[in-house]
Amino acid sequence: MRKILLFDTIIDGHHADYLCHLVNYWLHTKPEGELIVVAQASFEPMFHQLLESVPSVDTVRFVPISQQEIDDTHKGSLLGRPFREWNLHLAYSRKYKATHVLLMYFDIFQLGFWLGKKAPCAVSGIYFRPDFHYTTSSGLKARLNVLRKKTTLRGVLRKSMLLNLFCLDHSAVTLVREMNPRVNVVPLPDPVKSYVITSAEREKLRDELQLDPNRRVFILFGHLDQRKGIEPFLEAINQLAPELQQKLCFLLVGAISPDYQAQIEQKISQASPNLQIVGVFKEVKGREIQVHFELADYVLTLYQRHVGMASVIIRAAVSDKPLVSSDYGYMGHLVQTEQFGNVTDSASPAAICQLLEQILVSGISYSKAKLRKLAEQNSDVSFAKTIFDRL
């Protein structure tokens, strides 16, 4: 009997969402075989909630990874982690006699996959951040880093047990295919579940957050850390003329570490009183995410040298909101060439300020049709179907 094992030792952010999409699709399509979900114990409540919607299906089960195993795998040297992850996956795939394993975060397994013990069954993986094809500095260290990544990936691709590599950065697909045509390198949708949001829901949240209806709302959503470009954006809006500051609301939504929250709140306290800055410093899930996006006029992805795709782009497309994005990498290329919004140097407050002046005076020119198409192509169903059709 076919036994597909999904394996992930990380459960925050999109990791839980991706598992939910796959489990939900399996429950509703009822394919032959068994689906075994191996993840952190904290995923179990979400798993049982999914089962409640289709109680008659008994071909899906959840297997929690013990906290001790999680700690042992995540701690220790970074160089050793790929081998610890790989060996832990091997233990579960052997124990449950899997016929095919999907590594939900392929990137961290590569060295273990290439140089570690042989897997007992076919393996596929979701590849998040191939960045060896990005323009980089000409320094020796940077060139050696690119060489190391290419060498490792070529070694992985030579392993006969690797059948499919699902790639979230579509710009890398052709290059990876050229490394070894035997492996199925598949462009993978970046999934977002969409909801029908009522005007009453939207206005209720607007009132709760006390958003000024006369201001244009720029939302920054996700796990809030230094990579998200919060500080350059705060510097940029402080450089705006007072009359433009009075037209802007900066809405930050997402989980944040206490130390970084204290830093950001200090910077907010020093910002111009002409600005409205609202922080929702907690994890927001499911339907509530889209309600927040519906409140916004523009979506910020001014990430610092971000590699690969970002699901926030799809969330913007679902809510038909233009993007204000970094000009770096695949994300910057996508926003610019597909007319999803405007791009700028996300590390430069002056460049961000200049773009904001333009937006606040004359808005953004973008393609609603292309955003709509992007949302349709990256549904949770498209994501799961792309994967299960090949496992």
Automatic annotation (TrEMBL):
One of its GO terms (molecular function) is glycosyltransferase activity. Pfam families: Glycos_transf_1. Residues 202-363 form the Glycosyl transferase family domain. This is Glycosyltransferase.
